[in-house]
Design brief:
Blueprint: E1 5-7, E2 10-13, E3 18-23, H1 28-31, E4 35-41, E5 48-53, E6 60-62, E7 70-75, E8 80-85, E9 94-101, H2 105-110, E10 117-118, E11 122-127
Parallel strand pairs: 2-11
Antiparallel strand pairs: 1-3, 3-8, 4-5, 4-9, 5-6, 7-8, 9-10, 9-11
């Protein structure tokens, strides 16, 4: 298991922005080859996929609900992935979880990081 640490959550108003970070501490050997993604779970609902980015950064995929509002990036020199969330809506309120998985990209996406490592989550609350 790889340790993943999320940060950047908070409480904002609808239309505001937040940037979440997910760091994989422990050096290059831990981070190398790690595809990463974000999931979220609202109270009383199942966890859902938000977005994912390949280790190289060349491939990204987003849920329809966040396409055009959320943007993924990563800085491999800092072992960190970022999720820029703009035009936030109350329905974006959830605990956001970071995931990391080294399997083939297609396998990671098709299985929703099922064999990967997960962070503890960070709360995002959007008020109307």
């Amino acid at each position: 298991q790889i340790k993943l640490i999320e940060s950047g959550g908070g409480s904002v108003q609808a239309g505001d922005s937040l940037r979440l970070s997910c760091e994989a501490p422990g050096g290059t050997s831990i981070y190398f080859g790690l595809h990463m993604g974000w999931f979220r779970q609202a109270q009383g609902k199942e966890r859902e996929f938000v977005a994912a980015i390949s280790y190289s950064g060349r491939s990204t995929t987003y849920a329809d609900s966040v396409q055009g509002r959320f943007t993924l990036s990563r800085d491999n020199a800092k072992n960190t992935m970022y999720l820029q969330m703009d035009s936030l809506k109350p329905e974006d309120t959830a605990v956001y979880y970071c995931a990391g998985d080294r399997r083939l990209w297609n396998d990671v996406i098709s299985t929703s990081f099922s064999a990967g490592s997960w962070g503890q989550g960070t709360q995002v609350t959007v008020s109307s």
